[in-house]
Description:
The protein is an all-alpha fold. The protein has helices at residues 4-7, 18-43, 49-60, 63-67, 71-92, 99-127. The longest helix is centred in the last third of the chain and has 29 residues, at 99-127.
Amino acid sequence: MNNPLEILNLSEESGFSRLRSAQVCTLICYAGLLLLFVYLNLSQVHGSFSKWLMQSVPLLVVLPGLIRNNYRAYSWLCFIVLLYFTAYVAEVMSPLYVWTDAVALTFSVILFIGAMLTSRWLQRTTRN
C-alpha cells in the first residue's frame, strides 16, 4: 500500500506540491480580502479607519501564525472566515448588492477551502 503522503503529493521532492499550492492560494485570497477592505474604505463615502480596523483586525490576529506556518493558525483562520462568509452571503442576496460583495464572498470561500486544506496537510506532515 502507498504512503499517504505520496498519495497527497506532500513530499518535498515533488516540487510545487498540493500543500504549497494550497498555502499560496490561501495567502493570495487573504491578501486580496485585506486589500479589498482597504479599497472599500478609501473609495466609499462611508469608509473610515475605524471601519477598516473592525474589518481587518480579526484576519490580522492570525497573521503571525500564518507566517510561522502553524497549522492551528490556519484552523483558526477557517473559523474567522466563516464570519465574513456569513456576512457576504447576506450582502450578495440583498437587492442592494454591489460587485465588491461578490468578490469578497469569492475570496472568503476560496480562503476557507485553502486554509482548511493547508491546516489538514500541515498536520499530516508534522506528525510524520
